[in-house]
User: Which sequence fits this backbone?
């Protein structure tokens, strides 16, 4: 599994929330932000994600994380919205599968996901999203940019086929009223 920075580099043409590699002496960034360890493992479960309200908060979090983790640490712009997931899985029977659904730290609990064998087009991805039990949340009251999420899922499926990606977990993808932006990625090639 590639680490966070390698995964983001692989996805450089996709909308990834602004981030930078930081050190104790370089914590200049737009706050609020999230500080993360650059690993291919689940960062939240390891305690490798901290919210930073300001630079002082970031310095304290950096020192704590440096005691627990080796490797690079990144600061990433905070994004507010609905947490979604886009994934690629390799199946012995069906080949590569695209997964879309509601994500975040509750993805395993909610299990509100839909799968399709690749290749898929926008119309099929739209059907997948409409199959989700919580779909009405995306189109009732607050209108989220479902079209941007569909575009992103289509791009991910194309990249997965071109780059021979074995597994990809983009979770969460933050969906707002105007965009779908990737804030975490785990990729295996």
Assistant:
């Amino acid at each position: 599994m590639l680490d966070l920075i390698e995964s983001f580099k692989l996805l450089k043409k996709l909308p990834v929330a602004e981030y930078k590699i930081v050190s104790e002496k370089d914590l200049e960034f737009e706050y609020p932000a999230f500080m993360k360890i650059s690993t291919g493992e689940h960062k939240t479960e390891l305690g490798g994600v901290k919210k930073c309200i300001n630079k002082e908060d970031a310095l304290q979090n950096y020192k704590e994380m440096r005691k627990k983790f080796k490797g690079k640490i990144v600061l990433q712009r905070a994004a507010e919205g609905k947490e979604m997931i886009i994934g690629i899985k390799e199946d012995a029977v069906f080949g590569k599968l695209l997964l879309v659904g509601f994500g975040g730290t509750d993805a395993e609990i909610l299990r509100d996901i839909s799968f399709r064998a690749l290749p898929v087009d926008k119309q099929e991805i739209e059907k997948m999203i409409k199959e989700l039990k919580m779909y009405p949340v995306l189109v009732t009251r607050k209108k989220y940019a479902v079209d941007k999420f569909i575009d992103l899922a289509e791009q991910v499926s194309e990249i997965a086929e071109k780059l021979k990606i074995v597994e990809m977990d983009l979770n969460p993808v933050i969906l707002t009223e105007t965009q779908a932006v990737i804030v975490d990625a785990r990729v295996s090639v």
Summary: Residues 13 and 155 are 9 Å apart (CA to CA).
